[in-house]
Amino acid sequence: MTALTVMVQGTASSVGKSLLCTALCRMFQRRGLRVAPFKSQNMALNSFATLDGGEIGRAQAVQAEAARVAPTVDMNPVLLKPEGDSRSQVVVLGKPIGSLHARDYFAYRGELKDIIARSLGRLREAHDVVVIEGAGSPAEINLKDRDIVNMHVARVADAPVLLAGDIDRGGVFAALVGTMALLEPDERARVAAFVINKFRGDITLLEPGLEMLTARTGVPVLGVVPYLKHLRIADEDSVSLEGRRRRGAAGPGQLDIAVVGLPRISNYDDVEPLEHERDVVVRFIERADEIGGADLVVLPGTKSTMADLAWLRASGLAEAVAARARQGGWTLGICGGCQMLGGAIEDPEGVESAEPAARGLGLLDVATRFERTKTTAQVRARLAGDSFLGAGDAASAGEGELTGYEIHMGRVERVGGARAAFAIGSRSGRAEAALDGAVSADGAVVGTMIHGLFENDGLRRSLLAALRGRRGLPAPAGETAIPSRHEEYDRLATAVEASLDRALLDRIVGLDRR
Fold first, then answer.
1. CB 115 within 8 A of CB 148
2. Which of 123, 299, 406, 463 could cysteine-pair with 333, CB 3.0–4.6 Å?
3. Where are the alpha helices (DSSP H) in 31-89?
4. What value, to the nearest 5°, has the Cα angle with vertex 487 and ends 483 and 488?
């Protein structure tokens, strides 16, 4: 039987569409339904590697996990990774097809529509419900003739639309009514209900507005979802970084982790598990004077290593990071950050930059050469040797084996007898004996190409214990374990389900007829 569909669109970007879709995936899964997420086109620098080596947006990987299914490229057939100057790397069915200017990409959309329709069809054949996420707003009237992600997909899927608005930012009634006014009649007919998201306060004060909203538009309000604090669910929207950049320094007894806020930062959710530790403050910094007394400095991933390395030097952060590391300050580089910490960076084919070569910070004995073949893989690994991440044995690394994923264009090699950071045991489910990253001679600088390391509880605990030991700080008293991702999916789903009219939702989706 072909799957039922429901689509979440929004009045703007960052109104909570991804989280609402995540909640719906878990809600339907808990009812015993086979659920799959879908977003036809995603623009994001946070991405994920599927088991077969495809690359998709991080949000669809999260939604698949909430639905308890393995993520596949059909869940996000088109991924755009912005590179600046109106260009993006275009990833289709998990593989990059090139870097395209916006004009060239729009000319390609006819072919993409067919690819999107086939991916959606395959998901509908294999599941009971497909939860579809839109992008931005369906009322971008200057772009509607190029739409392949909002109402176009709703028509292809014959999906009812839940239109979400963010009340926390203000103007939610105007946003919902204005969106409806700008839609075409057939599009307005697809909007089955409104969802008011991120509400704080007394709902009785909101109810008159909800009644007037329905009276004005003829569309019911499915529910008012509360603002949920401290969810341990990965973000993919760069808007979420703004609040992180405003964080102050750690207080007494807290660990201070400074993450360099690169202009083209990617997969910044690598540090998200650390943000949920009780005695840890994670700050995103953009100036040299913000490093302060950080216990750990992290150079994260980037979509453009060469360009962000130039920014690092121009900002003064390169010199500050290097000087601190040479004095024994612990420093971690992940993916592009690992490449920047090394020596030679070569790009003879212009894969990432017009510059054929550059020098890294010289803190690790590694060399990078960019190639057109992209590495995307899920990996299993172990610590290869002692560093501030732990000792190179199973006991000190917690559970011993670690899981993560690789997404990068460059080939990174150790030079001069450098020690590796990790030993990889498998890639994309296939056994493999390979070494990853590097550790400096004094152990103060570590680089790795593996994302998602701090999702491994043992490694995260080992790092935090080492940081506390260096400062002479005790571990927090009482229960310290952070919630698992599945516990957080359940918390989100329970809160959203309690906020919605369940009977109305079932009628909208068609579950009342099955």
1. no
2. 299
3. 58-66
4. 80
**Residue with token string 């176009």:** 152
Q: What is the dihedral of CA 168, 172, 173, 179, to 10 degrees?
A: -170
DSSP 409-445: EEEEEE-TTPBPSEEEEEETTEEEEEEE-EE-TTS-E
| Exposure letters 262-273 (e unless 16+ CB within 10 A, then b) | bebbbbbbbbbb
238, 24 Cβ separation under 8 angstroms:
no
In this predicted model, what pLDDT tens digit does every residue of 100-109 receive, in sequence order?
887 888 888 8
Q: Which residues have C-beta within 8 Å of that of residue 98, sequence separation ≥ 6?
A: 89, 90
For 327-346, give the DSSP string.
Answer: TT--EEEETHHHHHHSSEEE
- Rounded-to-integer distance, Cα 78 and Cα 81, Å: 10
Q: Identify the active-site residue in 21, 335, 338, 408.
A: 335
d(CA 39, CA 74): 9
Report percent pLDDT > 90 for the chain.
Answer: 75
Measured on CA atoms in the order 505, 508, 513, 514, is the torsion positive or negative?
negative
Among the residue ranges 129-143, 237-251, 293-307, the one predicted with the least confidence is 237-251
Give which of 40, 39, 27 is closest to 67, Cα–Cα: 27
Among 490, 498, 499, smallest CA distance to 231 is for 490
Q: With the C-alpha atoms ordered 422, 427, 429, 433, is the resulting torsion angle positive or negative? A: negative
Q: Select which of 127, 152, 408, 451 is catalytic.
A: 451
Instruction: Say whether pLDDT at 305 is over 60.
Output: yes
Q: Are strands 78-84 and 41-43 parallel, antiparallel or unpaired?
A: parallel
Q: How far is CA 323 from CA 101, 286, 300, 341, in A?
A: 39, 16, 18, 12
In this model, does residue 399 exceed pLDDT 60?
A: no
For residue 239, what are its two tokens?
């808007």
Please confirm, yes or no, whether 338 is among the known catalytic residues: no
pLDDT at 140: 92
pLDDT tens-place string over residues 61-100: 999 999 999 999 999 999 999 887 778 889 999 999 888 8
Structure confidence by residue, pLDDT tens digits, 180-195 = 999 999 999 999 999 9
